[in-house]
Design a protein that fits this description.
Blueprint lengths: L8 H18 L12 E3 L6 E3 L1 E4 L6 H4 L2 H14 L4 E3 L10 H5 L8 E7 L5 H12 L6 E7 L4 H4 L1 H12 L6 E5 L2 H9 L5 E5 L22 H12 L3 E5 L10 H12 L6 E5 L3 H16 L1
Parallel strand pairs: 3-4, 3-10, 4-5, 5-6, 6-7, 7-8, 8-9, 9-10
Antiparallel strand pairs: 1-2
Helix pairs in contact: 8-9, 10-11
Length: 296
Amino acid sequence: MKFTNKFNRRQFIGRTAILAATTLASRGFAATKRTAVDQVELGKTGIKLSRLGMGCGTNSGNVQFNLGQEGFNRLIRYAYDQGITYFDCAQSYKTFPWMGEAIKGLPREKLFLLSKIPGNPEKPMEVIDRHLKNYQTDYLDCILVHCAVKGTWTDDLKRLMDALSEAKARKKIRAHGVSCHSLPALTLAASSDWVDVNLVRVNPQAKHIDGPDEAWNKSGSDLEPVLKQIKIMRSKGHGIIGMKICGNGDFVKAEDREKSIRFAMAQPEIDAITIGFKSKEEIDEAIERMNRALAG
């Protein structure tokens, strides 16, 4: 090819490179590097949170409670310093009364605070207000119905659901949803237009996942029905957070944790995951494993 003064070889190479880069980008090859502490969108809620969250309720919070208040506070701060902004707790966890003190001084606008309410309280708005007081904040990012097991939970817990809807309208919370502990409950959650956010038990070893029995302590052994519901949730724009990534603490072997984290990171429907930590080393390990999995 002959190059003229108006279109020299350098210009040709430059324009060719731009064209190639544009083509690769259009095919998805120019994706930025993903990490465990990226700020990711939670379904269609418009809310962002870190891809990795710190769970504060391992074995009902006993694991974190055993650190003591000061030790727990330090672990929360360490997690935040590593880029974790999502903190997951619940009214029934032993660490619940500690949350306000643990996050004190952290920039509220950068945090994603998720809490959960069990049962169907007689005065749910008062319970919601107690959650705000406990966290020492004027709003929570998300409150979930905790541990739904019945395939009729949207009828059974309507009083709580209505209060959460009102709280969202009054900007006391930004989103609401459900944490399920059975496949019937999960199936209903996937089809619900009320649900903004689902907290779903998921790991490839099928440990402590949702099963057909309507009981919180009767786990399933087949992950495929759970994955099917996750796909339905995504089709409806629900936010999806994975839990039990480390099998409720059962995955003491490093290869099990690696397998589970890789699996979770490979599911395009899952926005974020929460893992219960008891040490800085566990936080560092999870971040490293997630980063490696996300790198491909």
